[in-house]
Design a protein that fits this description.
- The complex is a heterodimer of chains A (about 575) and B (about 400).
- By secondary structure, chain A is mostly helical.
- Chain A has two domains: about 60-350, MetI-like (MetI-like fold), CATH 1.10.3720; about 365-565, MetI-like (MetI-like fold), CATH 1.10.3720.
- Chain A is about 75% helix and about 0% strand.
- Chain A is built from 24 helices and two strands.
- Chain A has a two-stranded antiparallel ribbon with strand order 1-2.
- In chain A, helix 1 (about 15-35) packs across helix 15.
- The longest helix of chain A is centred in the middle third of the chain and has 38 residues, at about 255-295.
- The mean pLDDT of chain A is about 85.
- With about 400 residues, chain B is of the alpha/beta class.
- Chain B folds into two domains: about 25-150 and about 305-365, D-Maltodextrin-Binding Protein, domain 2 (3-Layer(aba) Sandwich); about 160-300 and about 375-395, Periplasmic binding protein-like II (D-Maltodextrin-Binding Protein, domain 2, 3-Layer(aba) Sandwich), CATH 3.40.190.
- Chain B contains 14 helices and eleven strands.
- Chain B has helices spanning about 1-30, 45-65, 75-85, 105-110, 175-180, 195-210, 225-240, 255-260, 275-280, 315-325, 325-335, 350-360, 370-375, 385-395, and strands at about 35-40, 65-70, 100, 140, 145, 150-155, 160, 265-270, 290, 300-305, 375-380.
- In chain B, strands 1, 2, 3, 6, 10 and 11 form a six-stranded mixed β-sheet that branches. In chain B, strands 8-7-9 form a three-stranded antiparallel β-sheet, covered by helices on one side. Chain B has a two-stranded antiparallel ribbon with strand order 4-5.
- In chain B, helix 2 links the parallel strand 1 (about 35-40) and strand 2.
- Classes of the chains: A mainly alpha (about 575), B alpha/beta (about 400).
- The interface between A and B is large, with 69 and 69 residues.
Chain lengths: ~575, ~400
């Protein structure tokens, strides 16, 4: 009798289904956008290809400054996030300070970008909370000073907000990447050879870590160069960043502007591609340089300054994020609140009682879509990973890097560069405005993140567990769900929670694929943000924050419950 | 005798057409029952959202029409979605049934044949609309409406000042410049092409231009540089005295309202003459805020609802549009604590009871009376909007 020791071959369908899911949308969207960028859009009577949209783009008033702010905020945020993440790991990893970061990582990740930007803005603006703390007592200001803190022309404030939001993400991705590196061993060997722990990190661990988080870094780059919602809140205004400008062109009632928008969107994509190429080049240069440094035997190192910097940043990041949320909480209970009062002059429960009545439908839409998309996402990703394992065990060579790039594609291509094209195509087949299309568009962004967070841990699963179990019961399915899934329950639930929070955060896809018919908590919050009544915006932003947070919480609590009788699994 | 017949024929025709109209309307109501209307409208104001929710509930109770408010940040993106549908050959079953619209967006939709209609002449409530004293219900930013959109509310540019900071408000644009000299950094206006910003620029031009009539002809027929020279001279002087030294602008009136409450600026603007009273009642602005207009009058216009050419529920959309224009709905909309949006109806055309209700409307604490609001200046020819926006961007977005 022959016992099948692997899961069936149908697994090979998973990568096909998963990549078709992405590629179709992206290719269709890009193609449609590119033809429009070269002036081809029959519906508005533009039937021939031309370079006119491009010349109009380059001669648009303020184009150079717009580009400048885009590059400074986008590339600056990426490089700063990477440097800070490396600094945090090298100096503070597994120190007392690290615990602060460890415990706040989930809530930091769960804070929606737009909500964070609104809170941050109220914190630092000249009439903000920090200023109110010192006014009029210290500063003597009865009215807020006319200082240009947010919305500076270079996009510095935008860059800082992006850094504060991206560092937690990069830390999370690095933690996943470190799972497969022997950090403790490297540190022990390095220190026994007389190297300071920071030096061991710099010379041994970080060079191994970088390739593992490279794609996440590129995703951050693509996101930062093309972000719309935060840039609208805290970015420069005349001119705004390129992405905001493109978004306006797409929404301009003068329909010829769509061509301009398409060329601008394509330019953003080009910027992302060029920036990634430069980062690659930089990597090679740093590699050459480091090779000599690493083997030089130099053990001299001054640690005081980075140590301080790292601690300072952890405090600042956690502090600012939590204060921004606190400020939102206060605004949500406010009736009247004027400068320079530190707290509202009068309070009210009105906005919560009203808000909670109104958010029921949007929350239901959000939860329904998020759970479906993340369930499908986790299912497809596990299928792909199992297929990878099957091929590996069968001795078939798999091209993992290519697969990885494919998975990452939706994160590396700015949403703005293809979503409008997808919308036109979906509308042609009358597929927009349907719930399955909405779930599909969310899946596009949920899958990569689920893959990112689950992949490394899933691959590092000790296959011998399965082997032993198989000799005991012989059913691959039973072993799979009784042993493997159970052992991996925690990371799977965490990946599900990440997928869910990604789904919750989707603004443009929800708007376009849903034809605006599906209110989610995010579309509602962004809509109300345009009306600028901070009190009701705060209620919605907090609901937007709480929804994924509850899912994260269950991701933490469910394993505790399931493993209540298994002490070794509790940790 | 001949005359008698003529009169009889006319009377007959009138009765007949009224009967036909009534028939057509009851047909529309019949078809509308059970339809769902996706009403695409700006969703940035909680009070307006509440009002739309109330109206939707009423038409569901009365006509069996379900209204879903699709909240949008900018109606421009709905225009572009409908265009996408048209370009994809989707001539029926569109995703939008009714939209809140005016000005540039209406012109773009009309020019590109994206609208259903004419239809407003079929709506019973339309007969109450004040087409005599409110010419902007017939000409939307000078674009002829031709029954392609149903008037919903009136707007007039007003300014709001925080009298806790200073009691003396500017009376015209030059006075505003003097005010800015006295209180540097305390005034601003939204950057065009935000329509609030464009309106401010148009208002300034109307006040400063040597020949105002030139603005009512297409821009191609006048010497743009000569006509607008006083405007640029004014703005060049104003910008360095503005909030953030004119390097940073707000995105619209709602954001300015927030800045006014924060004390960053002393003067804000609005298109709704009741906005200040409403915001005070709502806790958004302090009690010390008051409304004022410039001595020579301010720009006024009308906002409308329109039905896209490929709407799925055209009848339902008409029923809802008709309800929005009805005396009852218009009255509720005009109450300062609800929304405070002025009516498009001619109050003297209403029955005694409705008329009395309108007359009894409370005037908000910061609302100007009709006489204080003064003269409404009509919008310049629509072609000036694009030209002014382009010139503004060329000068100040560098």
């Amino acid at each position: 009798m022959r016992i099948r020791l692997t899961l069936p071959n149908r697994l090979s369908l998973f990568p096909i289904v998963t990549s078709t899911c992405f590629l179709s949308a992206i290719l269709i969207g890009l193609f449609s956008t590119w033809t429009q960028a070269f002036g081809y859009m029959p519906s508005i009577g533009s039937n021939h290809f031309s370079l006119e949209p491009w010349t109009r783009l380059f001669t648009h008033p303020g184009f150079v400054n717009s580009l400048k702010a885009t590059l400074v905020s986008g590339i600056g945020a990426t490089l700063l996030s990477l440097s800070i993440t490396f600094l945090l790991f090298a100096v503070s990893y597994q120190t007392r300070f690290w615990r602060i970061l460890d415990q706040t990582l989930a809530p930091l990740l769960a804070i929606p970008h737009a909500a964070f930007a609104i809170g941050f803005m109220f914190l630092v603006s000249p009439s903000g909370w920090i200023m109110r703390l010192f006014s009029p007592g210290v500063t003597g200001f009865d009215i807020p000073p006319d200082w240009n803190i947010t919305g500076d022309a270079w996009g510095i404030s935008l860059m800082l907000v992006l850094v504060l939001k991206e560092v937690p993400f990069l830390v999370l991705m690095s933690l996943g990447g470190l799972g497969r590196l022997d950090v403790r061993g490297s540190l022990a060997v390095g220190r026994s050879l007389g190297y300071h722990r920071v030096l061991v990190w710099v010379k041994i661990i970080l060079p191994q870590l970088y390739p593992r988080i490279r794609l996440s870094l590129f995703a951050i780059l693509a996101y930062s160069l093309s972000v719309v919602d935060i840039a609208q809140i805290i970015g420069p205004t005349v001119p705004p960043t390129l992405a905001v400008q493109v978004f306006r062109w797409f929404n301009d009632p003068d329909l010829v502007s769509r061509l301009l928008g398409a060329s601008g969107a394509t330019l953003i994509l080009l910027l992302v591609v060029i920036a990634i190429a430069i980062l690659y080049l930089l990597e090679l240069i740093v590699q050459c340089f480091l090779k000599r440094q690493v083997t030089s035997g130099n053990r001299h190192f001054c640690v005081l300054f980075p140590n301080l910097l790292s601690k300072l940043f952890i405090i600042a990041m956690v502090g600012i994020s939590l204060t921004a949320i606190t400020v939102l909480l206060i605004w949500s209970f406010t009736w009247r609140w004027r400068f320079p009062d530190l707290f509202p002059g009068s309070w009210s429960l009105r906005f919560w009682s009203k808000g909670l009545m109104q958010v029921q439908d949007p929350i239901w839409n959000t939860v329904k879509t998020g759970i479906t998309a993340s369930l499908l996402g986790v299912f497809l990703v596990i299928g792909c990973l199992e297929n990878e394992l099957r091929l590996k065990r069968a001795g078939i060579h798999t091209n993992t890097p290519t697969m990885l790039w494919l998975t990452y594609l939706p994160l590396l291509i700015p949403q703005i560069a293809f979503l409008f094209g997808v919308q036109v195509t979906l509308a042609a087949f009358r597929l927009d405005g349907h719930w399955p299309s909405l779930v599909w568009s969310h899946l596009l962004f949920v899958i990569p993140y689920v893959f990112l967070s689950l992949g490394p841990i899933y691959r590092s699963y000790d296959q011998r567990m399965t082997d032993v179990a198989l000799t005991l019961c012989g059913s691959p399915w039973r072993v799979f769900y009784r042993i493997k899934l159970l052992i991996l329950l925690k990371p799977i639930l965490f990946a599900f929670a990440i997928g869910f929070s990604v789904s919750v955060a989707q603004y443009l896809p929800t708007l376009f694929m849903g034809a605006g018919r599906f209110d989610t908590i995010t579309t509602e919050a962004v809509n109300l943000a345009s009306g600028s009544d901070r009190r009701i915006v705060a209620v919605y932003a907090l609901c937007q924050l709480l929804t994924p947070l509850l899912i994260f919480l269950s991701a933490l609590l469910i394993p505790r419950f399931v493993f209540r009788n298994r002490r070794e699994m509790q940790g | 005798m001949k005359r008698f017949f003529a009169i009889m024929i006319i009377i007959g025709a009138l009765i007949g057409s009224a009967a036909v109209q009534a028939d057509e309307w009851s047909d529309i109501k019949q078809t509308a029952r059970g339809q769902t209307v996706y009403f695409n409208a700006w969703g940035g104001s909680d009070s307006i959202n509440d009002y739309i929710r109330w109206s939707g509930n009423e038409v569901r109770k009365r006509y069996g029409v379900t209204v879903k408010h699709v909240k949008v940040t900018d109606i421009g993106d709905v225009v572009s979605r409908i265009l996408a549908e048209k370009s994809a050959g989707r001539n029926s079953g569109g995703s939008v049934d009714l939209m809140w619209i005016n000005g540039e967006n209406f012109r773009a939709m009309k020019q590109n044949k994206l609208l259903f209609g004419p239809f407003t002449q079929k709506l019973p409530s339309y007969r109450f609309v004040d087409t005599v004293n409110k010419p902007t219900v017939l000409f939307d930013f000078t674009t002829p409406v031709e029954h392609m959109e149903a008037p919903w509310g009136m707007a007039q540019l007003v300014f709001m000042i925080d009298t806790a900071r200073t009691t003396k408000h500017p009376t015209d644009m030059n006075d505003l410049l003097a005010f800015a000299r006295k209180y540097p950094g305390r005034i601003t206006y939204p950057a065009p092409p935000s329509f609030y910003g464009t309106t401010f620029v148009k208002q300034a031009l109307l006040e400063l231009a040597a020949d105002r009539q030139a603005l009512y002809r297409p821009v191609s027929q006048s010497d743009f540089d000569v006509v607008t020279a006083p405007l640029w001279k004014f703005l060049d002087a104003l910008h360095p005295l503005m909030w953030r030294k004119g390097k940073n602008f707000t995105n619209g009136a709602p954001q300015m309202k927030q800045l006014l409450n924060d004390g960053e600026i002393f003067i804000s603007l609005s298109f709704n003459p009741n906005d200040a009273s409403h915001a005070i009642a709502n806790g958004e602005l302090p009690e010390s805020v008051r409304t004022y207009v410039h001595r020579t009058g301010t720009i006024g216009n009308t906002h409308f609802v329109a039905i896209p050419f490929n709407s799925t529920g055209k009848e339902g959309a008409m029923v809802f549009a008709n309800f929005l224009m009805s005396p009852e709905a218009q009255l509720k909309k005009a109450v300062p604590s609800t929304w405070g949006d002025p009516t498009v109806l001619a109050v003297d055309k209403l029955n005694a009871q409705d008329r009395a209700a309108f007359d009894k409307l409370p005037l908000g604490v910061a609302t100007l009376s009709a006489s204080e609001l003064g003269r409404v200046i009509t919008e310049p020819d629509a072609s000036w909007v694009a030209a002014l926006e382009k010139a503004w961007l060329n000068r100040y977005q560098r």
